[in-house]
Amino acid sequence: MKKKGFLFFVVYILVLVGIGVMAVTRAGETSRRKISIYKEATPEDGTGQGTETLQEVLHLTREAEILEVAELPQKQEYNGLRLDDNGMPYAIRINRTLNIVTVYSLDDEGYYTVPVRAMRCSISLDDTTPVGLFTTTEKRLEWAFLQGNVYGQYAYQIHGGIYFHSVPYTENKHDKLETWEYNKLGEGASLGCIRLCVADVKWIYENCLPGTQVYLFNSDYPGPLGRPQQPYTFADVSETGWDPTDTADGSPYEGTAAIYGAEDHTIKIGEPFDSRTGVMAFSSDRQNVTDRLMVDGTVDNQIPGEYKLAYSFYDNGKKIERDIFIRVVDTEAPVITMLPDRLYLAGYHGDKEELADLIARNITAYDNEKQIIQYRWTPEKDTTEDAELVIDLSRVEDIPGSYEISCYAEDAAGNRSESYTIWIELE
């Protein structure tokens, strides 16, 4: 293992020219450029004086043609249009791709950018749930008859036939919840409306006034609070049931305190995460006491590993607890953005470490936006926890000639960039 260090000094001057090796830009245009490299005189004879004359230094000067690789698209963090203050306390964004509803309050500049609450939802299986900006209407019903000959709680009109409402019921009774549909929260399942668990849709119903902006859009970015987990999963979906987050009288969960939405799951490195997202607490008398919920533990979404979170609250003096584990994994391959395409070098004497150092100095690569500074010149993986450039010099012999080598970047999780070919001309 070597860092791009100081095995010997190489100075390179970047010169933009009209010919050379193709560079591909994001726009698809091409340009070419070269660099000049030379080896500096270094004191190696014990006298403190350089052993190489100026002529010898100039003799070592050669051009290396540099290839700039087309950069991969940046991670999309599109979160919809900027929503301006329209006099309402909140605005709502609905990510159709990921089935996430996120509520925002105003920032100091008058925009709805401060995340308040993220909720798991179900939009339509097709494109019936529209894209666009709407404002909620005055039409709100605690129970509504819905398309498909079913019923929903806390129906709140967004636009036309598109409503917020609970998961459907076969009758307008709290114990007639379609359990098989409830388990689909987080995926497309509705006929166009926005389905949520009772606690979440009730919060919107009670806190978001008519005139609240609702923006529906598509994105792979879950939002600043991350992805809420399933609030509850019914083991038996052959019968109707009762939403455990529904605090109406007669709940079969009466007498049981519980924490919902806290589940073991995996996130990708860099993915937004908030330990409170989607997690709710209910007392034994079936009151929503999420504001009393305590969380012990942290998750570093930039470092792969397994993290423990401990949730707890007190119910009539008894501590109610639930522990979960969040696994952060690295699935993003490193990216090489610049490397030599063809390198000319005089005075090579078979030192592969020196050759690898020269090549590595002229490669730019990133792993999760962090520049890669380490390299190795054999394909065999070592035990480093850092990403490395892999410069395969196995085909290079100790005599002058033209050699083809391969180069790629690899991170500690084993993710690899695309492999590139570099031609080396040794004189």
From TrEMBL:
| Active site residues per record | 165 (proton donor/acceptor), 193 (nucleophile)
Q: Which GO terms describe its biological process?
A: cell wall organization; peptidoglycan-protein cross-linking; regulation of cell shape
Q: Does the keyword Nuclease apply?
A: no
Keywords of the record = Cell shape, Cell wall biogenesis/degradation, Peptidoglycan synthesis, Transferase
**What is a single Pfam family found in this protein's UniProt entry?**
Bact_surface_Ig-like
Q: Which GO terms describe its molecular function?
A: peptidoglycan L,D-transpeptidase activity; transferase activity
Q: Which domain of life is it from?
A: Bacteria
Q: Which InterPro entries match?
A: Cry22Aa_Ig-like, Ig-like_fold, LD-transpeptidase, LD_TPept_cat_dom, Transpep_catalytic_dom
Q: In which pathway does it act?
A: Cell wall biogenesis; peptidoglycan biosynthesis
Entries under SUPFAM superfamilies matching the protein? L,D-transpeptidase catalytic domain-like
Cellular component annotations (GO), alphabetically ordered: extracellular region
> Could you tell me which residue ranges the L,D-TPase catalytic domain spans?
90-217
Against PANTHER family, the record matches this protein to: L,D-TRANSPEPTIDASE, L,D-TRANSPEPTIDASE YCIB-RELATED
User: Which protein are we looking at?
Assistant: L,D-transpeptidase family protein
